[in-house]
Amino acid sequence: MSFAVVAALLTIIPGLDTVLVLRASIVQGRLRGYATALGINTGAMMWGIAAAVGASALLAASETAFTVLKLAGAAYMVWLGATMLWRSFRRNASASVGLDAPGRPRGGLASAWAKGAGTNLLNPKVGVFYIAMIPQFIPEGASLLAMGIALAGVHNLLGLIWFSLIINGTHLVRGKLQKPGFVRATDRFTGVALVGFGTSLALKSH
């Protein structure tokens, strides 16, 4: 319960994950919003398992490993954001916002899932968070792997509830939000957020 409280507070703080799910829900629809959310949760679960077995401890202790993963993640986020910005300024509005025709999104569910998972897995600060938090909530004598998975599962469940609120709330007014001007603005906002986050990640020290 103590971990759930901490995880809930961290979940509802606006961040890159929320931006990605919100953008997918507005531009590509509810299913791709959920696919993005599940990708993010997959990344979080893998980090939780890594923290439980000690892999994230190595990441936290190794400056080289942290730097390599940090730069890879930063490059991926900047590329993803720059691609969104570039598409949003193309003449063909349907191509720029990720639509082939009104209401027909480009990119499959696997692509949406991969974006969510990739963004989370390539963010080393998620790993550092898990290695800092999970051990504090593992009872003495409990299985590290089992508890690591259980705690990451709690975080994922809370995240899915939060993302569901965002996705379904967006779906109710999606018709208004899918106007070309608003969708282009959404892509530009998301693109700037990704580029900014990636740049910040690259410039920050361990």
Describe this structure in words.
The chain has 206 residues and is mainly alpha-helical. It has one domain (2-203). It contains 11 helices and 2 strands, in the order ααααααββααααα. It has helices at 2-12, 16-28, 30-53, 55-61, 63-88, 93-96, 109-121, 124-133, 144-172, 174-177, 180-203; strands at residues 99-101, 104-105. The chain has a two-stranded antiparallel ribbon. A hairpin with a 2-residue loop joins strand 1 (99-101) and strand 2. Helix 2 (16-28) packs antiparallel against helix 11. The chain is globular and about 55 Å long. The two termini are 30 Å apart. The model is unreliable at 93-104 (pLDDT under 50). Keywords: Cell membrane, Membrane, Transmembrane, Transmembrane helix. Its main location: membrane. The chain crosses the membrane at residues 33-61, 68-86, 144-167. It is found in: Cell membrane.
Entry keywords:
11 helices, mainly alpha, two-stranded antiparallel sheet, 206 residues, globular
Q: What value does the Rg take, in angstroms? A: 18 Å
Termini separation: 30 Å
For the report, how would you describe the main beta sheet? 2 strands, antiparallel
What order do the strands of the largest sheet run in, or round the barrel if closed?
1-2
The unreliable regions are: 93-104
pLDDT averaged over residues? 78
Number of domains: 1
Per DSSP, what share of the residues sits in E-state strands of 2 or more residues?
Answer: under 5%
Shape: globular
Give the tally of β-strands: 2
- Secondary-structure content class: mainly alpha
Helix content: over 70%
Count, helices? 11
- Sketch the topology as an H/E string, one letter per element: HHHHHHEEHHHHH
